[in-house]
């Protein structure tokens, strides 16, 4: 089975073993973003952030956004630094929020001895 994915944060192509991120159920990110903007407009939320978005995903949002992307939460640690994604977010003024900053739990047994 083949699938199409936009690729990882550094622009690498997605594969069957590495799905990367894609819009679920065929709903465009821009359509979801517009619904979130309605929540901001009505005072239900103060800001809208994204998680694991690639530059292509954010470009789709930025074309139609009335409210800025408040942050992009990404996995970030010594084995996944994502410099191209960080540079993109910096140029667009989108703060990054890291998770698994000490190391993704799935890599801890394999890599921890090298780091500590």
Strand runs, count: 3
Q: Let me know the average pLDDT.
A: 78
Shape: elongated
Structural class: alpha/beta
Gyration radius, to the nearest Å?
A: 16 Å
Total DSSP helices: 4
Q: Which strand order does the major sheet show?
A: 1-2-3
Provide the low-confidence segments as ranges: 1-10
The proportion of residues forming helix, as a percent range, comes to: 25-40%
What summary fits the major beta sheet? 3 strands, parallel
Strand content: 5-15%
Distance between the termini: 40 Å
Question: Helices and strands, in N-to-C order?
Answer: HEHEHEH
A few lines on this structure:
This protein is an alpha/beta fold and 116 residues long.
State the main characteristics.
116 residues; 34% helix; alpha/beta; disordered N terminus; elongated
Plain-language structure description:
With 116 residues, this protein is an alpha/beta fold. The chain is 34% helix and 13% strand. It has a 3-stranded parallel β-sheet with strand order 1-2-3. α2 links the parallel β1 and β2. The longest helix is centred in the N-terminal third of the chain and has 13 residues. The protein is elongated and about 50 Å long. The termini are far apart.
Mind sketching the topology for me?
Blueprint: H1 29-41, E1 48-51, H2 55-62, E2 69-75, H3 83-92, E3 96-99, H4 108-115
Parallel strand pairs: 1-2, 2-3
């Amino acid at each position: 089975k083949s699938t199409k994915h936009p690729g990882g944060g550094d622009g690498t192509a997605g594969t069957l073993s590495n799905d990367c991120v894609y819009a679920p159920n065929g709903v465009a990110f821009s359509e979801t973003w517009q619904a979130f903007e309605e929540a901001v407009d009505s005072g239900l939320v103060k800001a809208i952030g994204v998680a694991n978005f690639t530059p292509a995903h954010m470009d789709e949002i930025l074309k139609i956004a009335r409210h800025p992307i408040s942050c992009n939460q990404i996995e970030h640690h010594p084995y996944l630094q994502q410099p191209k994604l960080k540079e993109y977010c910096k140029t667009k003024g989108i703060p990054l929020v890291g998770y698994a900053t000490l190391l993704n739990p799935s890599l801890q047994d394999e890599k921890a001895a090298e780091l500590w």
